[in-house]
Amino acid sequence: xxxxxxxxxxxxxxxxxxxxxxxxxxxxxxxxxxxxxxxxxxxxxxxxxxxxxxxxxxxxxxxxxxxxxxxxxxxxxxxxxxxxxxxxxxxxxxxxxxxxxxxxxxxx
Amino acid sequence: xxxxxxxxxxxxxxxxxxxxxxxxxxxxxxxxxxxxxxxxxxxxxxxxxxxxxxxxxxxxxxxxxxxxxxxxxxxxxxxxxxxxxxxxxxxxxxxxxxxxxxxxxxxxxxxxxxxxxxxxxxxxxxxxxxxxxxxxxxxxxxxxxxxxxxxxxxxxxxxxxxxxxxxxxxxxxxxxxxxxxxxxxxxxxxxxxxxxxxxxxxxxxxxxxxxxxxxxxxxxxxxxxxxxxxxxxxxxxxxxxxxxxxxxxxxxxxxxxxxxxxxxxxxxxxxxxxxxxxxxxxxxxxxxxxxxxxxxxxxxxxxxxxxxxxxxxxxxxxxxxxxxxxxxxxxxxxxxxxxxxxxxxxxxxxxxxxxxxxxxxxxxxxxxxxxxxxxxxxxxxxxxxxxxxxxxxxxxxxxxxxxxxxxxxxxxxxxxxxxxxxxxxxxxxxxxxxxxxxxxxxxxxxxxxxxxxxxxxxxxxxxxxxxxxxxxxxxxxxxxxxxxxxxxxxxxxxxxxxxxxxxxxxxxxxxxxxxxxxxxxxxxxxxxxxxxxxxxxxxxxxxxxxxxxxxxxxxxxxxxxxxxxxx
Lengths: 108, 567
Hints:
The structure holds two protein chains of two kinds. Chain A is mostly helical. In chain A, about 70% of the residues lie in helices and about 0% in strands. Chain A is rod-shaped. The interface of A and B includes residues 40, 68 and 70 of A.
């Protein structure tokens, strides 16, 4: 009679344990799913940011290429009134560009 | 008895059904395995192509000559289309094809009316600005997909050199002509593939398997092209053609010691970004794919051969130069019908004396002449890394008649490409070596950089010969017909040429190809340049058209290279 009572007392405990375990696992899954979802979202945001920067970089490169084109440089120079130099002075080795000074007299 | 019959019948029926099922399974698993596996693969996996970026083409200062630009594909998702087809076509056509909206509208209507498709492309490579304009129309079912477009920042300046990117028969991008064509495999790279497991509705399974084959971007080409020289020759050529009323023209500038091409321009040219609107005949590069009779510029090659063989010396006197020569019923005259009896070989080059050159040809002989033409690389392509190079055939030795030898001595009756001519004269400038012209000096990829070294061929002329020939060419510039245009203070070795154009079996008296080939400074050449003008109308003579243009460009190059005059 006592043994039967003991068994009866054990069963609800086991059920409680299982329920607690299920609840714990459900909670754990919830937390995990939440973490996964938010990390995924963060990752997506970072990827989008990287894509945006890459695109911006490409657009800037395209602009540099266009701005640096000699056609454009020549036309801009023309607009600014720059003209081609036609007279050049060639400095030959016989004519020294600068002479070495041996002494400096200041104020005399 | 009755029950036994039924049991046996069922047994046989099960055996037959089992046999049929086994056969069917055998068929599916053995014969149809590949098809069914592919079907299953399609049902389980979703694939995305990751396009590879086409490699850039850079000038020697690493500025891009060919690059990539962001562009968009406009498409229509037919089930989502709400507006009337005509309305959509009328709104889109002027934005997609401003030059020809009617044709574009027709094409859009035709595509939107397709009932067998759910997705149709409308136009490739539209700009960001056009995309914004289309978005503002707020048309349902019209979408965009990002793609890359080839761009050429320097415009048409290097069109013949670079070529362009079009599509092959499968709609895949492919380079044609010039560097884009020659280096297409290196430039295009390999597209990558992203494969993800998908669910029954076709959406990717987040925790499913992902397979990725990385894309490999195309390799970048670093060329020997000097952007300033390229721009300079292109502009000067355009002006020169206008000034002298020529039909077309070309200029090539090369480093004679290595064969590195510094600039290459031809006019008329085309815009490689919009190549479709130009005549197809403009696509090939005339400097490597069109042949011409060089005329008197060719005399320097024949004279070099004769000097090298010891057949003549610069001071050898021509004893048959007092009048026209008659060879096989043909009378050979000088260009101005002036004759210089007893002139030296230096004077023969200076006066561009056809009769004097026939004398040289006689001394050299047919066999040696053909041998030297082969040594100068005639009859074979130069090996330049440009797709459209061709070479006219060199007549075999046994087919050479006396008159062929005579006319070849002054550059008629023999054809070559402008680059072949430049390469041959470069041998005089560099001490006698035949070089292989090249445009790309480095191929750059993620794995590393591979350098393309200059190919210096065998020595075809003795060093002494090249020095003698250089002096003769310097004398021709200083005292010849074009001396008035020469920049003062520089030693320039060069030769003018005026070749008549063969038309229907005879030479047209009016039509000429004027040219000038030369190198400078003569003692330490930094560049060799060939200028050709087809049918100049202001004057047919090279000395009055191509030579002044050559000197005009050379003067600018002297300043750019900081080459000082000698006096």
